[in-house]
Amino acid sequence: MPESSVAKSARAMADHDGGMAEQQQVPPGLTSHMTPEPDHGESSWTGRGRLEGLKALITGGDSGIGRAVAIAYAREGADVAISYLAEEEEDAQVTAEWIRRAGRHVVVAPGDLRDEQTCRDVVARAVEGLGGLNVVVNNAGYHWARGEAGLSGLTADQVDRTMRTNLYATLWVSQAALKHLGRGDSIIITSSVQAYDPSVSMIDYAATKAALNNLTGSLAQDLGADGIRVNAVAPGPIWTPLGPATKTPEAVANMGRDTPLGRIGQPAELAGAYVFLASPAEASYVSGTVLGVTGGSPTF
Ligand code: NAD
Ligand code: MG
Fold first, then answer.
1. Residue of the nearest CA to atom 21 in ligand 1?
2. 143: domain CATH number?
3. Is 299 among the domain residues?
4. Residue 289: partners with Cβ closer than 8 Å, 6 or more residues away
5. What does the DSSP 8-state code read for residue 247?
6. Domain range for 85
7. What is the DSSP letter of 188?
8. 253 found inside a domain
């Protein structure tokens, strides 16, 4: 089986040690400030109608994994709403244009999801703009790995931002979406390899991702009777603005080098997992599971 064009481009982008060049931004970070810019599947994803007619909300859909999922969903036939922070408008407009170019309807819904009411408003704007909702991708996320590592380095502001963005927003966005979802619809949560193999440099983040895995199991039980599936994707180290925006330049340069596949991953390499889990036909009996896309690190 030949190597895919995305895997080839991912290997070509990584340096000889499998990582990226040292670089740094301020959160939330922008795609245009990254060298090289990530591969979101712009020139590789081919739609096959796997999500025809569905309506999806992707939080953090402006950049990184969220943008790759947005492009793939649109090419698979879904209308897509994206949420993001106001300072990411530039990235959001690029993603919105890719969705339009796929011939699908797009809704842009900026807002800070640390706030419960904003979570509800974003869902309401998505439902109104798309005319319904079938798939919710909880993908917005935050960590901070530039301070003093470990327990003694934690601050209340940092922990609050991490918990609210990763855990609370997933709860409130999913809860607000619930009354719009029906049989065959699904909720997808973005976990991390950190849930299984936590780093001392981001212990609060790793804890939220372990909590999200647990939540995937409880929500699958809760919503199964209504025919709503709940699953998660656990990415490994992926080339997105989150790294340069929150890690030290040295840590950015090392991302992915110690994975079994020996390199950082590209956002485009995540899209297949999210398309599969959203597909009512292909994943009809898949719920309560976490799908690892980690470059080989175990997620069990
Ligand atoms: P990214 O920076 O492109 O995406 C994260 C998005 O989260 C941002 O674009 C932003 O729009 C959104 N966000 C952050 N704080 C927010 C807030 N308060 N309100 C609203 N939106 C907010 O980076 P990414 O790597 O694509 O991240 C997507 C998901 O993947 C995150 O949940 C992250 O934890 C997870 N993940 C990433 C990696 C990696 O190595 N990049 C690894 C494992 C898991
Ligand atoms: Mg972004």
1. 84
2. 3.40.50.720
3. no
4. 216, 231, 232
5. B
6. 5-293
7. E
8. yes
